[in-house]
Specification:
Layout (H helix, E strand, L loop, with lengths): L1 E6 L20 E4 L5 H10 L4 E3 L17 E2 L4 E4 L2 E6 L2 E2 L7 E2 L1 H10 L1 H7 L4 E4 L18 H10 L3 E4 L13 E4 L2 E5 L2 E6 L3
Parallel strand pairs: 1-2, 2-3, 3-4, 6-9, 7-8, 9-10, 10-12
Antiparallel strand pairs: 1-13, 5-6, 11-12
Helix pairs in contact: 2-4
Length: 198
Amino acid sequence: MKLLLLSDRESPYLWDYYQPGRLKDYDLMLSCGDLKASYLSFLVTMGRAPLLYIHGNHDGHYKKDPPEGCDCIEDKIYQYKGLRILGLGGCPLYNGGAHQYSERAMKWRIRKLGWKLKRAGGVDIVISHAAPAGYGDADDYAHRGFACFVDLIDRWQPAYWIHGHVHKEYGRDIPRELQRGNTRIINAYERYSIEIEH
């Protein structure tokens, strides 16, 4: 199964210079936030795959103008062809804007999902906007990660944790992929493809 991962910057390759057929090989598209609603609507229209999304800290406009044809999986476990996909949007609280959470508030969101996780028998993929603390986050206050995400990884061992928020141009040494235990942690900035066996 081939997945297209998206976050934070609209890809010129997939929008400004799009050519028919560029999305035909993807089975699923996952957006980790901070992308224009019109861009996501375009991708789901041009591709043959569903597009699932969560909110980034700059996605307050989704309330009035949500991405058409796409599915928001915020605080849900979405089942797709046997894959269990959990969505946890937002970033750490830094200026009181939309979709920002204290560590305590994010921990509470995860705690409320406990019964859904147990009923589903765990989760295969988590998509978030912020990174797990210490795994692809940044040193500045606005781009730090959540410690409770690391706890969720340790408890449920998802095969993939996909996030955005930390732009690749912030530094050359920003890793695209990291690993914690059995979990592959991926920064989806702009666009990234993975193939998974399932």
